[in-house]
Amino acid sequence: MDGGIYFRWVNDSPIFLTLYVDDIVIAATTENIKLVLTELTKKFEVKDLGNVSHLLSMEIKYVPGQFLSISQRGYIGRILERFKMANCKATPIPQAKGDFPLPGDPDRETVH
Asked: What residue stretches are annotated with the Reverse transcriptase Ty1/copia-type domain (predicted)?
């Protein structure tokens, strides 16, 4: 795991906890989220902001049991504005088909 990302199993369910500066995002069952928040509030002042909607210039949408969507549309728009390319025309770029693993990456998993 990367620095700032923590993982553990509790009650036969995974808990992912990510830290960035003073922000924490918890991905777990509702029961385990409550458990983590209870433990954190014993040692720290915690403000629960509810479900995450934006993080590190990403827009996050989650509908339980249906989908998880992560988008950088807003960030891309700001970058295009910054470089005066907001009115540029998109064009498809051919992408080579196949799997191209990076050499020397033992942790890489193929996702289909």
From this structure: 3-95
